[in-house]
Amino acid sequence: MSKIENERTQAFREAFAKNSKQVALQRGVVKNGIRVSAENVQAHVENTPVFSIDLATGKVANQKQSGRCWMFAALNTFRHKLLTTFQLKDFELSQNYTFFWDKYEKVNYFYENILATAEQPTSSREVAFLMQTPQQDGGQWDMIVSLFQKYGVVPKAVMPESSSSSNSRDLNNYLNKLLRKHAVLLRQMVAEEATAEEIQANREAMLQEVYNLLAISLGTPPEVFDFEYRDEEKNYHLDQDLTPQSFYEKYVGVNLDNYVSIINAPTADKPFMRSYTVDMLGNVVDGKQVKYLNLEMEDFKALAVKQLEQGESVWFGCDVGQSSTRDSGIMALDAYDVEDLFDVDLTMTKAERLDYGESMMTHAMVLTGVDVINEQAKKWKVENSWGEKVGDKGFFVMSDEWMDEYTYQIVVRKEFLTPEQLSAFEAEPTVLAPWDPMGALA
């Protein structure tokens, strides 16, 4: 091992003090911080919020202090359709309703994984992975599809936000405590060779505890409700005795089986034009399998443009914290000039960032526009779910170069895929490890 000698540190100190440029930078960064000091004004000039294709979306939603971006993004794509079809204004679907059922189903999925690994030691990587975060707010597109297909959706007015849905930290903390305790009990029962009937009876008692915790925290999901509204022309509408499933069929009416997840993961272990799934990733037992088709970036972006050209927004997942300005809403590789600020080289390829833990999908949003010039996408319009106080009233501008480097997933209609792409998607998927970066939840 090579230790740091005090003499060497002193030489570094003296060299820094002699560099007037670094000392001047020190004053600015100590006072203002790294991001403010490194922000590049030119990135704002080059990423103005003007697009050749710009879909009408209404106001943005706000997930507040929760990790529900993936379901907000999915519900936003439905909201766009409802606003146009039924001439609604400022309408939202209930994110709390979907949140409740996601938590409930994730718990049952967790029990499945605990029982499947019950004979492994707690030191095994799989068991340690499960215990680290028994459940969380994040999810994947196919997981939200499973919820919609089983539970439908409801207007936000029918099941509004609760304190714990808007700020989910305490709910997750106590729910995970309870699930770790349940894991101890389930593993003990397997070790003591309890019968399947005994395990199931105890499992149902545990699930009742979870339902009670969720109902107390989030409210009770409605079974039947009335949908009452005025459209933009002030006409009154009343639709009575709806269920969440009948509301989805009548007002949303999207066949979710017609959509596929496309990823761009240029790592050596994931050849393009092949399908992938992730072990131990899901929420609804016997629900839709999480499945991706890995495509090169050129094909990836072409599919997104095709769907936008047809007037339909695109759910997508990215690493939002990389080189993006929260307040002004610019996602560009040159948004911050940190390399010049510190005189360092931070260059890595997209594959290297994935392989070495520098980047993964962290956030889901919606593509609602694109600026295509001479058949080439230049920048993209992004609907976020952080409220209207960030970006341009909640909307961000993403440069095409940023899309290349930090966007990992889109969801598009099957009809836009070539026959070869569709065949590759429908093939038996390669199973990735639970901790693979493509298993990251938005």
Automatic annotation (TrEMBL):
PROSITE patterns: THIOL_PROTEASE_CYS, THIOL_PROTEASE_HIS. The keyword Plastid does not apply. Keywords: Aminopeptidase, Hydrolase, Protease, Thiol protease. InterPro entries: Papain-like_cys_pep_sf, Pept_cys_AS, Pept_his_AS, Peptidase_C1B. It holds the Pfam family Peptidase_C1_2. Belongs to the peptidase C1 family. This is Aminopeptidase.
